[in-house]
């Protein structure tokens, strides 16, 4: 017996008289178990998706004021029957706490505005100076620094603003309803008229 030769003309030829052999049907129990697990997982996924959507479409229960039924007081079984027919109300969620005040410090209305330095006024120096003021919990400035200038740079304008703002009083910053230290930027503009 020789080995088949692919170059032989009858190499790929099928004998029409040869019996047809079906593949063996050795179905494994493991395949059935895997199929069952896949179906269960699919069903659980579908159920979780469906139940997640349902609460949004369910009607909301609104609490109605209590109504006293005089007939129910006379017959306790009538009240029990009514309670059994009434749908159970969902437990009320805890009320959200009222938002407490949170704000930055702000200057009080009675503070004296910085005075235009006479030297800068005679020289015609104009511009604005912004200072960052650190304010403690009692409303007293603890630190004042120049953070921005526009116009000509003038030490006289800077000094006038920082000296005046150090004497100011502030409404302190509030966080959750309590006075705390904070910072605020105060702009001051100098213009000769």
Describe this structure in words.
By secondary structure, this protein is an alpha+beta fold. It has five helices and seven strands. Strands 3-2-7 form a three-stranded antiparallel β-sheet, covered by helices on one side. Strand 2 (127-135) and strand 3 (141-151) form a beta hairpin. The chain is elongated and about 125 Å long.
Which outline best applies? elongated
Low-confidence regions = 54-74
Helix fraction bin: 25-40%
Kindly name the structural category: alpha+beta
- Residues in β-strands, percent: 15-25%
**For this structure, what is the CATH class of the domain at 111-190?**
Alpha Beta
- Briefly note the CATH topology name of the domain at 111-190: Fusion Protein Consisting Of Minor Coat Protein, Glycine Rich Linker, Tola, And A His Tag, Chain: A, Domain 2
- CATH architecture field of the domain at 111-190: 2-Layer Sandwich
* DSSP, total strands: 7
- Helix tally equals 5
The averaged pLDDT comes out at 76
Largest β sheet strand count, sense and barrel closure? 3 strands, antiparallel
What strand line-up does the widest sheet have?
Answer: 3-2-7
- The radius of gyration is 43 Å
Element order: H for helix, E for strand: HHHEHEEHEEEE
CA distance, first residue to last residue: 121 Å
List the helices and strands and how they pair.
Blueprint: H1 29-57, H2 70-74, H3 76-85, E1 106-107, H4 118-123, E2 127-135, E3 141-151, H5 155-166, E4 170-171, E5 173-175, E6 178-180, E7 182-190
Antiparallel strand pairs: 1-4, 2-3, 2-7, 5-6
């Amino acid at each position: 017996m020789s080995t088949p030769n692919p170059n032989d003309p009858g190499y790929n030829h099928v004998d029409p008289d040869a019996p047809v052999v079906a593949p063996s049907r050795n179905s494994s129990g493991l395949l059935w178990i895997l199929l069952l697990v896949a179906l269960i997982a699919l069903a659980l996924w579908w159920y979780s998706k469906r139940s997640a959507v349902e609460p949004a479409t369910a009607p909301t229960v609104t609490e109605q004021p209590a109504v006293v039924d005089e007939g129910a007081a006379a017959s306790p079984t009538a009240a029990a029957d009514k309670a059994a027919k009434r749908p159970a109300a969902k437990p009320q969620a805890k009320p959200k706490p009222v938002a407490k005040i949170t704000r930055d410090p702000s200057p009080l209305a009675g503070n004296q505005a910085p005075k235009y330095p006479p030297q800068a006024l005679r020289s015609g120096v104009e511009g604005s100076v912004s200072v960052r003021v650190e304010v403690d919990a009692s409303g007293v400035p603890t630190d004042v620094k120049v953070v921005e200038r526009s116009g000509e740079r003038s030490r006289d304008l800077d000094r006038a603003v920082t000296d005046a703002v150090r004497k100011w009083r502030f409404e302190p910053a509030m966080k959750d309803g309590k006075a705390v230290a904070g910072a605020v930027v105060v702009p001051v503009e100098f213009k000769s008229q």
